[in-house]
Write a structure and sequence with these properties.
heterodimer; A: mainly beta; 11 strands; B: mainly beta; seven-stranded mixed beta sheet; four-stranded antiparallel beta sheet
Chain lengths: 109, 113
């Protein structure tokens, strides 16, 4: 069993819809939680970072962490075609990141 | 783009050849990380440096792999006797704004034929 599980999708939504992405994890040592966006043939780009349970908002993006359930989510409101990318969850322990496999999202115009 | 450049961006090599990649952070960072990403997967940790010292190596880093950071600034990753299974994107990351936020470079895509 992988330490971080993420549904690979793909996920296709119409423009303006809410995109909901999720990851589960098994390692209780994970203390910091990130979401990255990756366009094809590019390096991952850090979107959100949090270390506590609860919600964190940044513009159209909301990251949610539930440490008791070992579950994290990312919500994208008012999705745009430019949001079409692969979204990776990542978790940190001892300064090293463990990633999910990524969910490919397509936002249809 | 982040403050990390990687060179080359794409390398095609024949099986058995040696290859070397370079990672150059624009500003000083005490930590520097290498990850490997294969198609359809998330990046996997390979190794990291605290200044010049290589502090940890993943079991993914076989004896054919070696990494250096001679002056605590840029870093190189060398793969000897490449195999087709080494084909992947090799990513470098640095903690630009704090110790827990890792920012990635554009990566070097390696294709072993």
């Amino acid at each position: 069993q992988k330490e971080v599980e993420q549904d690979p999708g793909p996920l296709s939504v119409p423009e303006g819809a809410i995109v909901s992405l999720n990851c589960t994890y098994s390692n209780s040592a994970f203390q910091y939680f990130m979401w990255y966006r990756q366009y094809s043939r590019k390096g991952p780009e850090l979107l959100m970072y949090t270390y506590s349970s609860g919600n964190k908002e940044d513009g159209r993006f909301t990251a949610q962490v539930d440490k008791s359930s070992k579950y994290i989510s990312l919500f994208i409101r008012d999705s745009q075609p430019s949001d079409s990318a692969t979204y990776l969850c990542a978790m940190m322990s001892d300064y090293k990141l463990s990633f999910g496999a990524g969910t490919t999202v397509t936002v249809r115009a | 783009d982040t403050g990390v450049s990687q060179d080359p961006r794409h390398k095609i090599t024949k099986r058995g050849q040696n290859v070397t990649f370079r990672c150059d952070p624009i500003s000083e960072h005490n930590r520097l990380y290498w990850y490997r990403q294969t198609l359809g997967q998330g990046p996997e940790f390979l190794t990291y440096f605290q200044n010049e010292a290589q502090l940890e190596k993943s079991r993914l880093l076989s004896d054919r792999f070696s990494a250096e950071r001679p002056k605590g600034s840029f870093s190189t990753l060398e793969i000897q006797r490449t195999e087709q299974g080494d084909s992947a994107m090799y990513l470098c990351a640095v903690p630009e704004q704090g110790p827990y936020e890792q920012y990635f470079g554009p990566g070097t895509r390696l294709t072993v034929t």
